[in-house]
Every structure is written in structure tokens, then in C-alpha cells.
Protein: L-rhamnose 1-epimerase
Organism: Streptomyces pristinaespiralis
Amino acid sequence: MQRVCFLLKVRSERVAEYRDRHQDVWADMRAALFEAGWHNYSLFLREDGLLVGYLETDDFEAARAAMEATEVNARWQAEMAEFFEELEGQAPDAAMRPLTEVFHLA
């Protein structure tokens, strides 16, 4: 199982709304994530907008590609893009750059 952690930056003026939007993630989005192999997926948000994401998956690139192929993900990413800084024209999920794991206590 591959553990993946990534960082993104939510616009500081949109932090509260971003948090609110994630209180009721669409059922079809949740199902698509699960079916694509995103397990133990969590998002952590600091008040200044630093977003830390964590997930476990058998193959991150395959899991990301499976989500990219879904219609629900296209809708979700289009709605969420306005919340983020520094996407450089990418959708939020395409802008994820996994961090290198340097320690894990098993």
C-alpha cells in the first residue's frame, strides 16, 4: 500500500467556505474516490490556508487517472479550482505533488 501526502494552498479569504464545502461532499464523488482506490483519504486545513492531504492506495498514478476519467471529478475540480492559489492553470487534483516520505513508524 502506497501512502501519499501532498500540500495545496487554499486562498486565505476562502478557508471558511472551503471547510464548509467539505462538510457534505457529494455522495457520487465519495463513491468515485473509493472505487478509484483512494483509501483513508483525509484533508487537513490550517487557518492560513495550508491544506495537507493524505491517502493510501495501491498505485497513486492509477488512482489519480481513474478519478480523472470520471464526470463527477471534472465537476468537483471545476467548482474547487477557485479556492486555490498557485494552480498554474491546472485542476487542483492535477496540481498535487506528493511529498517524499522520510520516516514511517510501522
Q: What stands out?
A: Residues 81 and 92 are 6 Å apart (CA to CA). Strands lie at 2-9, 39-45, 50-57. The chain is about 35% helix and 20% strand.
